[in-house]
Amino acid sequence: MAKSSTETYRTNPTSRAKHVRDNSPGGKYAHSKAYKRKHAKMRSKLKISSSKVDASKQPDGSYKAESRKTNRGRGGGQRK
After folding, report:
1. What phi and psi, each to the nearest 5 degrees, are found at residue 57?
2. pLDDT in tens, 17-54
3. Distance (Å, whole) CA 21 – CA 19
4. Rounded CA gap, 53 and 32, in Å?
């Protein structure tokens, strides 16, 4: 029988620490408001109104209008 999430967090200190971090105020979304403001500003500057286009951040720190499929398909934050 599979362990419940409670049992897992009790017995695995690493998982428990991440769980606490993610569910605390701020947590993993602490940067969200500033991030959203910055991207909204860049979307406006790039005159992007379509939901199928992202304001894609480039390695040099600039932004460009890019297909959402291309931008998100690259992996972004999930890429190691």
Report:
1. -80, 130
2. 999 888 887 655 667 788 889 989 999 999 999 889 99
3. 5
4. 19
